[in-house]
Amino acid sequence: MAQSIPPERDQDALDWARIFVGIVSLHPENYGLSSEQCSAFQARVDSYGALLLAATEPGTRTRVTVQLKNGARDSLRGAARQLIRIVDAFPATTDATRAALSMHVRDAVPTPIPAPATQPIVNIRGSGGGVARLLLRDRATPDKPAKPRGVLGALIATVLTAPGEPTPEFPTGSFQAIVTRTRHRLALPPDSAGKTLWVQARWINHRGMPGPASAISSVMVAA
Questions:
Q1: Strand partners, 196
Q2: Whole-model pTM above 0.85?
Q3: What's the rounded Cα separation, in Å, for the pair 97 and 185?
Q4: Which of 28, 60, 203, 220 is in Cβ range 3.0-4.6 Å of 54 for a Cys bridge?
Q5: How many alpha carbons fall within 13 Å on the CB side of residue 193?
Q6: Do 137 and 159 meet the contact criterion of CB atoms below 8 Å apart?
Q7: Over the stretch 77-98, which tens digit does the pLDDT of each residue have?
Q8: HEC secondary structure over 125-180
Q9: What mean pLDDT is predicted for residues 95-112?
């Protein structure tokens, strides 16, 4: 039977998480992750490490410290699985990358999974303060908040232009982020205020296969 990832045993899970975050934090963009995601996971790793120590040292081991350790472990495992799904679906991820991160290597002959057939709709619900708030819906079911069946998340591509410039081209395969929720706060560069933000998205399945591109949405970025 294949080993569970993250491992089941407390110390093994901590060791795996430390190695995983140590690797992906060096260049998060190479794994489809953001520096914020890595920092948040590092904080979980540090918290779990401290609670595990308290729950195993004879002088601090109590029912309370064990319960706190178990809660932190479950939280860490849930967060780890979320990051693993993102890395696994990232188009640039190879089997060598998965092996280096102690992730499961895909089957040599994987079960065919079709690419998403529908397009997302990108609603820009506001911008300013260094972020733009995105709301994604599926074109086939625009009134439902859920992602389509078999979809992991969306590839997000953005372009910033000076006011009045025409709609830019979005080359196939270009994107800046992969998101797994239908609501997303998109971080913007410091000099974005007053520029036009253009956004395009594609659904992506659990094997990293993208669907058709959405229509391009735009907004003037507020200060």
A1: 161, 220
A2: no
A3: 28
A4: 60
A5: 6
A6: no
A7: 999 999 999 999 898 888 888 8
A8: EEEECCEEEEEEEECCECCCCCCCCCEEEEEEEEEEECCCCCCCCCCCCCCCEEEC
A9: 74
